[in-house]
Amino acid sequence: MPGFEELRNNGVVKNVGEVRETPTGAPQEELATGERSTRNRVARSILDHGPSTVAELAGRLGLTQAAVRRHLDALVADDVVEAREQRVYGTRTRGRPAKVFALTDCGRDAFDQSYDKLAADALKWIAEREGGSEAVAAFARARLEAQARAYREAIEAAGPDARTEALAKALSADGYAAAARSAPHPQQGEQLCQHHCPVAHVAEQFPQLCEAETEIFAELLGTHVQRLATIAHGDGVCTTFIPRISHTTDHASASTAGRNPA
Q1: Of the candidates 81, 84, 8, 98, which has an alpha carbon nearest to the alpha carbon of residue 47?
Q2: Helix (H, G, I), strand (E, B) or coil at 210
Q3: Which of 3, 98, 106, 133 is least crowded, fewest Cβ atoms below 10 Å from its Cβ?
Q4: Cα distance between residue 147 and residue 135, in whole Å
Q5: Is residue 20 over pLDDT 80?
Q6: Could you report the per-residue pLDDT of 172-229, keeping only the tens digit for each?
């Protein structure tokens, strides 16, 4: 993970398409890289110094105010910063308060804040003090059960053939970027694909998180499921196979068959 020197590799500045030569002969890709670097400096300056005016940013960074405004417009469009009215303490002078720019929650999350390390350290403490891997598994299970209450409501409201899709939408609402798709042999079942995992770095050290999630999926869908791949294991997508449920059969027993996800 990058440190505080740069925003995480989340774009911040949207990529320019193809590389073209500019009138000065510099590839547009190089200019885009420079724009991205300067934009990161603007965001970093706001992080370090708090809500700032255009003039303050220009003075700190050695840029013109016009250049700062251009970068701020892009950062606002990407939900990295937001414009606010400057707070005035004491007697307010005449005229409108200056506009300041502050980081949004999204903007703060773009910087490495060591939350993953904090979570991993907490789980290590639980393992050492409260009963080893079984204690971690119990914590993971309790966490997922609480999270799954909303998922259960969505699944129960869906038809028998739309349960995987309903689960995918509920997961996406929690930031997992999930989707349901047919398995290679559609008559056999579906695949639930999660393109993002908020706890992937912690799950690399504690596979109990993936195991608890798989168990919860099986219970929610009323059938055994098989975890085929996980981001924590180094795969590009967390993929879970969900066999087609026979409507003439009651809920199958839940199982977490499949390779160790981490």
Answers
A1: 81
A2: helix
A3: 3
A4: 18
A5: no
A6: 988 888 999 988 887 789 999 999 888 888 999 999 999 999 999 999 999 999 999 9
Residue 2 has pLDDT above 90, yes or no: no
Contacts of 38 (CB under 8 A, 6+ apart): 61, 63, 67, 71
Report the run of H or E that residue 84 belongs to, with start and end: strand 81-85
Note the pTM of the prediction, 2 decimals: 0.59
- Across 191-210, b (16+ Cβ under 10 Å) vs e yields bbbbeebebbbbbbbbbbbb
Burial class (CB in 10 A: 0-12, 13-18, 19+), 74: middle
Conformation bin of residue 72: beta by default, left when phi > 0, alpha when psi is -120 to 50: alpha
**Phi, psi (rounded to 5 degrees) for 31:** -65, -40
DSSP letter at 53 equals: -
User: Which residues are bridge partners to 178 per DSSP?
Assistant: 194
C-alpha–C-alpha distance, residues 171 and 169, integer Å = 5
| CB-CB contact of 168 with 147 (8 Å) | no
Q: Tens digits of per-residue pLDDT, 96-136?
A: 667 899 888 788 777 766 778 889 999 999 999 988 999 99
Burial class (CB in 10 A: 0-12, 13-18, 19+), 53: middle
Q: Which residues pair with 101 in a beta bridge?
A: 52, 83
Gap between the Cα atoms of 180 and 162, Å rounded: 9
Residue 88 corresponds to which tokens in the numbers above?
A: 């005035």
Q: What's CA 157's distance to the chain center, in Å?
A: 27
Q: What are phi and psi of 71, to 5 degrees?
A: -70, -40
User: Is 190 strand, coil or helix?
Assistant: strand
